[in-house]
Specification:
- The chain is of the alpha+beta class and 55 residues long.
- 18% of the residues lie in helices and 11% in strands.
- The protein has a single domain, classed as Alpha-Beta Plaits (2-Layer Sandwich).
- Strands 1-2 form a two-stranded antiparallel ribbon.
- It is globular and about 25 Å long.
């Protein structure tokens, strides 16, 4: 779901997620909690480097 090579750790997805399903790993890259994600697409649409693709 998150392309770790593209993710720049900007936090846009974390801020836009309506259910708090996104956090950062120890490398500062976004991680999506699949159990919390409602697949609304807000994170995918807001990512400035297109690092997020929802299944």
């Amino acid at each position: 779901m998150v392309n770790k090579e593209k993710c720049i750790g900007c936090g846009t997805c974390v801020a836009i997620c309506p259910v708090g399903a996104i956090s950062f790993d120890s490398d500062g890259k976004a991680v999506i909690d699949k159990a919390k994600c409602i697949h609304c697409g807000a994170c995918e649409a807001s990512c400035p480097v297109s690092a997020i693709k929802l299944d």
